[in-house]
Specification:
241 residues; 2 domains; alpha/beta; disordered N terminus; globular
């Protein structure tokens, strides 16, 4: 739905709007190990370095932080980062196309379609992926049609800043002032939950990534789902479904 359609119809008669901020890896899509494997591949191709990311945590982190940490640890020239990311995006597209196990998380396409048709709801991204990489991943599964803007991991920063950027861009794009109690961060790692809590917005954790329900529940999100294949509306909309 484009901005003109929103401005001239979507908000008419709608309740106070909801903003849903979605992580990608482990939340919308599942391609375990592909991102890390591609990053490692590019270090080998450009610099002849194997196991460049060894010991660097990835779950819930930002691409720019992961790769920047490796560059600094290995003494590489950061002026080559643009070259690195161009190669990474090309290899990522190839790897996802060739991976028969890559898939969307259970029922997520139906969830996004229902929210997209709901005049109260807006879907945006809040991901640690660099923006180009994020769109490559979404296009692989046809999920890009549900999103227009978001916050991304191109610049090293705290993850909550990515979410803050997603809110700001959503408000600019849609001409809506979202209130904190109607903003929900949805992700599969403790870092997603921490980011939402830092901004004072709602958080929904989903155990379709590397953390199980108990581990996510220990972070005290507003709701935890084993996946979006179960009844999900109360988690996203609270008592106002």
């Amino acid at each position: 739905m484009d901005a003109t359609e929103i401005a001239h119809g979507r908000l008419e008669g709608a309740d106070s709007p909801y903003l849903f901020i979605w992580d990608i890896d482990g939340t919308l899509t599942q391609a375990p190990g592909v991102g890390r494997a591609v990053m490692e591949q590019v270090f080998r191709e450009l610099f002849g370095i194997a196991n460049a990311l060894e010991g660097i945590p990835m779950a819930g982190s930002l691409d720019s932080v992961i790769v920047g940490t490796a560059f600094d640890r290995l003494g590489l020239d950061r002026r080559r980062l643009p070259e690195y990311w161009t190669r990474y995006c090309a290899r990522l597209e190839e790897a996802l196309a060739a991976d028969p196990t890559a898939r969307t998380t259970p029922n997520i396409e139906a969830v996004l379609a229902e929210l997209d048709a709901d005049p109260r709801a807006y879907n945006v991204l809040g991901t640690g992926n660099i923006e180009r990489g994020a769109w490559i991943k979404l296009r692989r599964f046809g999920l890009d049609r549900f999103f227009e803007v978001g916050g991304f991991g191109d610049v090293p920063q705290e993850r909550w800043r990515v979410i803050e950027t997603a809110v700001r861009r959503a408000e600019a794009r849609y001409g809506v002032a979202f209130v904190p109690e109607r903003i929900t961060v949805i992700g599969d790692t403790p870092r997603d939950i921490e980011a939402g809590k830092r901004l004072g917005v709602r958080t929904v954790a989903v155990a379709t990534g590397p953390y199980d329900v108990d581990a996510l529940a220990a972070c005290r999100p507003d709701a935890v789902l084993p996946s979006f294949a179960v009844e999900w509306r109360p988690a996203l909309f609270g008592s106002e479904t």
